[in-house]
Amino acid sequence: METLRALRSIGCVAMFALAAFFAHTARAQDIEPRAYSNAPVGVNFVIVGNVLARGGMSFDPSVPLDDAHIETNSIVLAYARALDLWGRSGKFDAIVPYSRIDGTALFAGQPVSRDIHGFARPAFRVSMNLYGAPALQAREFRGWKQDLIVGMSLQVAPPLGQYDATRLVNVSSHRWSVKPEIGVSKAVGRWTIEVQAAATLYGDNGHFFGNTTRSQDPIYALQGHLIYGFVSGKWVSFDATWFTGGRTRIDGALNNDLQRNTRVGIVFALPVNPRNSVKLTASSGVVTRTGSDFDAVGIAWQYRWGGGL
After folding, report:
1. Which domains, ranges and CATH numbers included, belong to the chain?
2. What are phi and psi of 181, to 5 degrees?
């Protein structure tokens, strides 16, 4: 009975940190359920995941490639901690991806190919639940039930990682990005309905291909999730995300690369025991204008400690 209670409790918090790892396949195209779920203060998570993506994908959507056939294999290491932010629950997470890119495309009508691996840009995020999810210790959390949660977050990614200004395709993109987001989560019985809205703002890359400067307009995203939680602590999420914007300029010249894409996905989370969890993910481009016509699958393992659970 104690084991079952522990698994149910971990089911409430399992994978809330894992949600971020899948986003690094294509950071502006996140599918991230349970981003604003509550967890006991002081709980720590370490996550190791792998994502394989294949198809007409642009790893950096501002690179002017056509007819891309690219495969990426990304290993992601992440850490997260649940926080007490002035009486409201929140979390901090840090993510470091290591990726391999292999594929072909057309640039200015000519075939190009690339096979490279290295660290992509890390990302750091702080989130805070503004309403409906107070900061709780483990003893209090066991009796807490979600109703309506309203939260916000800010993610920052610095211009670090593998980058070669003499090549068009790189693992990293050598620029800053900042992503503010707001999310709403409503529980109805065993179902949870979530909606998130975000904008990703980009700094300039002054060392782009051919010694040029590349800038990019913000990408605006809206995503929704329908989540079902099982008694055992397992849960499944049916997801969709729509995003638009992101036109680029090279030395001030505007490119015809407006993004207006839709992706759908599914996530299945399985608590193995009170400290370990596994997550399976899959997503696919449905409506694509630029850089999102690809399929992706992923698996991740999460270990939890601290917080009194």
Report:
1. 2-305 (2.40.128.130)
2. -150, 150
Q: What is this structure's pTM? A: 0.88
| Half-sphere exposure of residue 228: CA atoms within 13 angstroms, side-chain side | 4
Can you list the alpha helix ranges (DSSP code H) found in the chain? 2-13, 138-141
* Calpha distance 230→197 (Å, rounded): 27
Question: 305: how many CB neighbours lie within 10 A of its CB?
Answer: 11
- Which positions ≥6 away from 157 have C-beta within 8 Å? 27, 121, 122, 123, 124, 176, 177, 178, 179
203-218 pLDDT, tens digit per residue, is: 999 999 888 999 999 9
Question: Is residue 175 within 8 Å of 208, Cβ to Cβ?
Answer: no
- Dist CA 13 CA 176 (whole Å): 31
Q: What's at 114, amino acid-wise?
A: R
| Euclidean distance between CA atoms 63 and 257, whole angstroms | 9
Give every CB contact of residue 48 below 8 A, 6+ residues apart in sequence.
75, 76, 77, 78, 300, 301
**pLDDT 10s digits, 8-59:** 555 555 555 555 555 444 444 566 888 899 999 999 999 999 999 887 655 5
Mean pLDDT of 187-204: 96
Tell me what pLDDT residue 101 has: 86
With tokens 């509550």, the residue in question is 38
